[in-house]
Specification:
It is built from 5 helices and 3 strands; from the N terminus they run E-E-H-H-E-H-H-H. The protein has 143 residues and is mainly alpha-helical. It has a domain of 73 residues. Strands 1-2-3 form a 3-stranded antiparallel β-sheet. It is elongated and about 65 Å long. It starts with 24 loop residues before the first strand and ends with a helix. The relative contact order is 0.13.
C-alpha cells in the first residue's frame, strides 16, 4: 500500500467528536427611546455569505423593503411586538415590513447590523505570578 505524500495514513486518523455551533442571540435595546419596552431577539450566528448579502443591501441605492425582508427572515428570532389589535406580529421579514413606523424598522436593522459586525471580546488571559517580577527587580536594586 502506498503511503500518502503527507506521511499520514487516513486509516490512522482518530475519531474526532462532532460539534454543533451553538445558537447565539442578542437582545436589541431601545432603552431611552420612543420604543422603550420593545424586545427584539436576533440571531448572531449566520454565515458570512448571509452577512455579506445583507450588508451589500445597505448602500445608497438600497431597496429598503428587500433589506427588511431579508434581514427579518434570516436574523429575527422573536420579539414582543403586537399590532393595533393586540395580536402578535410575526418576527419575520413580512412582520418587519408591516410595522407602521419606518424609523423603528430602520433602527432594528441598524442595531442588528451593528450587533452582527461586532467582534466578541477575547477571552481574558490569566495574570502571571508577579512575585517573580518583584524578586527580579529587588535583585537589580541590590546587585
Amino acid at each position: 500500500m502506498k503511503k500518502p505524500q503527507n506521511g499520514h495514513n487516513p486509516a490512522d486518523r482518530r475519531k474526532v467528536p462532532s460539534f454543533t455551533v451553538p445558537d447565539r442571540t442578542t437582545v436589541l435595546s431601545f432603552q431611552g427611546t420612543d420604543w422603550e419596552g420593545a424586545e427584539v431577539v436576533m440571531r448572531l450566528n449566520i454565515s458570512i455569505a448571509t452577512y455579506l448579502t445583507i450588508k451589500g443591501m445597505t448602500g445608497d441605492d438600497a431597496d429598503p423593503i428587500a433589506l427588511a425582508q431579508t434581514f427579518g427572515d434570516t436574523m429575527l428570532k422573536e420579539w414582543n411586538l403586537v399590532n393595533d389589535d393586540g395580536k402578535p406580529v410575526p418576527a419575520t421579514g413580512a412582520g418587519l415590513t408591516s410595522l407602521p413606523d419606518m424609523t423603528f424598522v430602520l433602527r432594528i436593522v441598524t442595531l442588528g447590523l451593528e450587533a452582527m459586525a461586532a467582534v466578541p471580546a477575547p477571552l481574558v488571559m490569566p495574570s502571571v505570578d508577579g512575585s517573580r517580577l518583584v524578586e527580579a527587580s529587588t535583585a537589580l536594586e541590590t546587585g
